[in-house]
Amino acid sequence: MLKKQYHLAQEGEWVPITIDELSTLLCCTKRNTQLVVNKMRENGLIEWVPGKGRGNKSKLRFLQPISGLALQRAKQYVKEQKMVEAFRLIDEVQIIKYEFSEWLTQQFGFKNNEEKDILRYPFYRPVLRLDPTFVNRRTEANLVRQIFNTLVKYDVKKGLVIPQLAHFWESSDCKTFWRFYLRKGVRFHHGREMTSADIVFTFRRIISESPFESIKYMISDLIAVSKYVVEIRLREPNSLFLLHLCLESCSILPFDLKELNQNQSFEKTPIGTGPFRVNKNDESLLILEAYDYYFEGRPHLDGIEMWVWPDYKGDSHLLKPETNDIYFMDFEMKQDSLKQMTNIEQGATYLTFNLKKAGPLQDAHLRAAIHYGLDREKLIRELGRIREIPAVCFFPSSSQPFKNEYDLVRAKSYLAQSSYSGETIHLYTYEMKSNEENARWIANELREIGIDIQITILPITELSKHVVRGETDMVVAGEVFGDQVDLGMVEMFSLSHGYIHNHLGEEEERMVQYFLSLCKKEESSDMRMSYLIQLQQKLIEQNQILFLYHTRQTLQHSHLLNGVILNSWGKVDYQNIWIKR
Hints:
By secondary structure, the chain is α+β, with helices and mostly antiparallel strands. The chain is built from 21 helices and 24 strands.
């Protein structure tokens, strides 16, 4: 504080000052100010010569540069697990950013602390919403997989639903009556055994509180037949029911959740039955610990630490894997010493139009002008990073090749034919660096052809609110499908708080409902996908959705790590990772 106040003082220069002035600056009494001054003198931070006689000022001289003190304090904050405070200090003292970032990168990778294998990696934001009932982002969903379990699980390699918390299940001929037999001895992280009461509690909570409509509207009743047997009754036959039970949103919760929530936030530090349990979760970091009593076998790792570093990818040039033999990062560093895994994710970044809202975008000519006015290849060229290839639909492996239809003359022609007369078009997106870059790029390109765009960036929880969604004209967002791609598409088209479903006009909504009803009756995954691809194509033809690009998923790690598999979200299941020493 003193350095900031007297920043013009040269090194070794005496600064005239009074105790009264210091008291005001430090916001404390004269007595406390004198104590602070004495402490700084004892620590060799300042020289202090008290003024003698009335009207004579004291003299202060700084003995150490602010950079050294700030760097030392920032490192101490990190050691105390106070990342927010550390970066706040770095923002104030920019001169130490490079040195601090270089030191911080050396803290990541796999650490062997007291013979415990800890995976430590950076992430650009905290993850404070880990309640499965409400999880709506892939990072949170992947973490939920580490903390919780579902009744049944989808095996990607086999393409089958396999047992998890339920070891066996059966259904009536009409598929509306299901009975699940639970494993015995499965314990939640707080020690209590899981029983049918937890299953009933979980799904009743989903029915009453979950924003995901599909599963909640399937179920008509739940009955705990015995301690380890539960019955679920459906309103009508639904071929997607078992697949829905595999979703993270159907993770089984403890029935005593309310009591647990009184001591600490269940959303931040949830309790499940999974391979890892939450030790700490705040704005600075998330700490997961291996659960010794996990019913499928204890993980090889002892713990996971996710440190919040807002711009860690921007400082990636400081990373030096050769100094740390066990490294793990979710972006490219172009180091020969690391094993790299890449994939193009199933899903796409897209632009959707709000046809529920009266306004110029009801005019198909304006939507066509926007389509022809956006050069997807130019977007990828100029913004780069993880933007891999232009998209024609949600799937990068589509048989339909990309054809760049960017045509400025055609775009302006469609604009002239439309009813648009200079109204402001409101483009929304949620907080994330790539989304914000996309929104600004789109706005700039459309202004070039004469469309006035105003950008609004909100937290994802705000953009999901009904009132806010109603104000949007366009939303730029991304969709990434999990292991069950057909189910992911059904969920996407069903979600009333989602951007696509919420923007459908009446005619488009009826069309979507028709195709979804076909999917519910169809046992074959291939047939369901054919229906969904037909639906997707119809929405593309009407310019309801404009696809932009597919994203590249990347993971790099040391050759000493085993069991690292890139899943459909571009993440890993930590319970399978182990270190070969």
